[in-house]
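Predict the 3D structure for this chain.
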Amino acid sequence: MRIVTDSKKIEEILGRGVDTIYPSREKLETALKSGRRLVIYYGIDPTASHLHLGHSTNLFLLEKFRELGHKIILLIGDFTAQIGDPTGKFTARKALTESQILENWKTYRKQAGKILDFRSKRNPVEMKRNSQWLSKLTMKEIGRLASKFTHGYMIKRSMFQERLRRKEEIYLHEFLYPLLQGYDSVAMDVDVEVGGTDQTFNMLVGRDLMKILKNKEKFVITTPLLVNPKTGRKLMSKTESFIALDLPQNEMYGKIMALPDEVIIDCFKLCTEFSLKKLGKIEEGLRQKSINPREAKAELAQEIVKIYYGAKKALLAEREFNKVFKEKKLPSRIPEILIKAKSLNILDLLIKTKLASSKAEAKRLLEQKGIKIDGKVQTDWKKVIEIKKDRVLQAGKRRFVKII
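Done. Predicted structure below.
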């Protein structure tokens, strides 16, 4: 397999979507220019059934390395997901069953395949599961691994320090998580691990294990998280809120348009391969207020939907969005639901149409003037609604249901 060692291409790859490189960018560049084929991986714990735009930053980086000729592994953390990564959590994660985990990751290959090339004849991306080796470790082997690290090393993690400050418990299995994730690097004998900045500690444990057990350097590349600069909160999280990579194109377009203006540039940089030169002009235009943020966001939505569905469907998604939000017309396609009743209390109707999951949520939507029936805002939660054919219910800006 021929390895591309072109300095300009390597600089371009490391100049976008990269936060920090351990031990240094210079040493990694030397390794990439050496002509040696590196084994590079990115791991995802299947704690939810959808990948999201936050994952795409790492997937783009992997694909660029694959194009240089390096061996790429997408690792499914089906074993570590049963333990639960304590990263960013101030309480222990809820344990997942094997069947839940299997259900969650069954479409990951298809979702990631929008960016990664699993079908390449010369250099396909490989998918592995860490249960293949972690489930076979004996207590003796786990004890041997644990003996390489001290309590003081592990307790330095920021979320553990925060729990101590709050006088909250830290469970023993949470110390095992970084140890087992670190062992993934040893089991696969990797050269490079890629992951978000929130995974830095876990990845560096793997780097230390590689030195201890294999006397080998492992590079760690951390990538920036999508964060709202005003609130400091993550935009994408499998367990909180996200824009999934397999969302229908119209919904994906609409959710991107609903993102806060202050994240437009970061989303361009981290979630697309949009020209940085063109992006610089957009950034300057936004700063000078010569470009409307809505226009920039529409271009962002076009760019992202195009990645996952192609240019034609991206254009259709834009037209559909403008039809609903600019022209105030109904969507071209509205989900239909059969209601066998002459009338229903509005709370019960919202639950039956799945526009609300509970009466409390339905009441909240009504109080916030978030419910329309046939285009008219509804606020009275005691109101009885006559069930008519083709009656259209709307919750928020994007959810519609037609009664049949």
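The chain has three domains: 7-223, 249-325, 336-403.
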